[in-house]
Design a protein that fits this description.
The protein has 472 residues and is an alpha+beta fold. The chain contains 16 helices and 20 strands. The strands form 5 sheets. Strands 7, 11, 12, 13, 14, 15, 16, 17 and 18 form a 9-stranded mixed sheet that branches. A 3-stranded antiparallel sheet has the order 1-2-3, with no helix packed on it. Strands 4-19-20 form a 3-stranded antiparallel sheet, with no helix packed on it. Helix 7 packs parallel to helix 14.
Length: 472
């Protein structure tokens, strides 16, 4: 039978002799009922409220229907639930579950002032667009766009939340640095062509500690990949040390961050480093014999072979002192594959092979976190004209990541999804169908009876209720 679509009725292929008919008139049903778990996490960390305090609202109070907290919460929860586009919110503003997540007093929207807005508890795309496009110098005299965000306060919040998630001072933390491309397809401010990525893009800087995001800084791409790293590290390390005075801090990055400025700053501030080092003729000469031996081993065994070697090394003019360099003389089926790293940690503490294989190579997991945020939480949705508003979009994506990561850290612990990525969490735990009923005293969520991860859901809820977070 040919599919026929009318304004409200859809007639699908028949089931035997039965007609299969669909209509979008099921009533107050949400497809994102699992988002209530994110609300539990948010309540514990007080995340969206603290984020809202990083904004300054110049709107007239008597004309406000959506508070700053509700606007930023709507954007963050929307991204976490998979809605990257502001246009989605013209339909999502009807969703009572999302209104519940945003702490709307009346999730049904019947308390709206204008008659045309009744039943729409949340803001539409135009209101959210004005929030994102507010210029940094806006004030009460600025027309329309009057909610200014303060980047310094948001940066501090990332670090505060990270420390909140660790009630006890750790003995040691490793800060991973990396830069990546954010492709652009318009004439955005700060747009440049990058030769390595072969596209017009931004070059954001990320700093993670394990799964925890500490910095997401949007930058133009006509710069060295390490530019601004010292400023970000100085801010993060000083703030951490004010609370964790005994914690040892190590930074880790690829060869793009092997710069004298960064290493000298680490040495002056008691921070250790493990950094990739780009190969050159002098470095290759140091391991010439090792490369020959690795080739012989490969020819003998037919398997990849590697030999580790270390030595003191100093560049001819850019480094201020000699430093410990570890070399990997490796031969693969494609040929020689030499690699180098430089570190401030002594051989007595960590030997050569362990330093490379277990410490340096572990930085690769950070790239998975960046992919999570860019591909699954839409950090690359930087399509506004101004760089400041694109940075704000990156902040929204970052807060959505922090929220989902807190759910993973505290809720999924001990479950089969303990290492699940954000997209898996969204599909299996957040995308649940449920009917909503709002009464004077209660909000009822009637979840789908056939939901397959019911036991896991209950375990996550119990885990979240045991959270003991005291926000900074």
């Amino acid at each position: 039978m040919k599919t026929e679509c009318q304004s409200s009725r859809i007639e699908f292929q028949e089931l035997d002799k039965r007609q299969v008919i669909g209509e979008f008139n099921g009533g107050d049903i949400t497809s994102d009922a699992g988002g209530i778990l994110l609300r539990e996490v948010n309540k514990q960390l007080n995340l969206t409220d603290r984020f809202a305090q990083c904004f300054e609202d110049f709107r007239k109070s008597e004309k406000i229907e959506h508070t700053v907290h509700q606007l930023v919460a709507q954007r963050i929860f929307g991204i976490a639930l998979g809605y990257e586009d502001l246009n989605d919110h013209d339909d999502l503003r009807h969703d009572q579950l999302l209104a519940l997540l945003c702490e709307k007093d009346d999730p049904t929207g019947q308390d709206r002032v204008c008659e045309r807005d009744k039943g729409k508890a949340l803001a539409g795309k135009s209101t959210l667009n004005r929030l994102e496009l507010t210029p940094p110098d806006a004030d009460e005299k600025t027309p329309y766009k009057k909610i200014v965000h303060h980047p310094e306060q948001i940066d501090d919040l990332f670090i505060d939340v990270f420390m909140d998630c660790h009630p006890e001072e750790p003995d040691q933390i490793i800060l991973d640095l990396d830069a990546t491309d954010d492709p652009l397809h318009g004439a955005q401010e700060g747009r440049f062509f990058h030769g390595y990525y072969k596209s017009y893009c931004y070059l954001p800087l990320y700093i993670f500690c394990g799964d925890h995001l500490l910095c997401a800084r949007l930058r133009p791409s006509n710069i060295d990949g390490s530019k601004g790293s010292v400023d970000e590290l100085d801010k993060i390390v000083n703030k951490i040390r004010r609370q964790w005075k005994q914690t040892r801090i190590i930074i880790r990055g690829d060869s793009g961050f092997c710069r004298e400025e960064i290493m000298a700053w680490c040495e002056e501030n008691g921070v250790d480093f493990i950094l990739g080092l780009a190969k050159n003729a002098r470095l290759l000469a140091e391991i010439k014999e090792d490369l020959v031996d690795a080739h012989i081993m490969y020819c003998t065994t037919g398997r990849a072979s590697r030999i580790f070697h270390e030595f003191e090394y100093r560049t001819l003019d850019s480094w201020s002192q000699s430093r410990r360099v570890i070399a990997k003389a490796e031969h693969l089926y494609k040929g020689a594959n030499p690699r180098f790293i430089v570190t401030s940690i002594s051989q007595e503490e960590i030997d050569t092979r362990e330093m490379y294989e277990e410490w340096y190579c572990a930085r690769g997991d950070m790239e998975n976190r960046i992919k999570e945020q860019q591909l699954q939480l839409f950090a690359d949705r930087t399509s506004t004209n101004k760089m400041a508003s694109n940075q704000l979009r990156l902040y929204f994506s970052s807060m959505a990541y922090i929220l989902l990561n807190a759910l993973r850290l505290f809720g999924l612990n001990g479950t089969q999804m303990v290492k699940a990525q954000c997209e898996t969490i969204r599909v299996k735990l957040l995308k649940i169908g449920a009917k909503i009923r709002v009464t004077v005293r209660k909000v009822w969520l009637f979840f789908a009876s056939a939901y397959p991860y019911r036991k896991v859901f209950f375990q996550i809820f119990k885990n979240l209720r045991r959270m003991n977070i005291i926000p900074t």
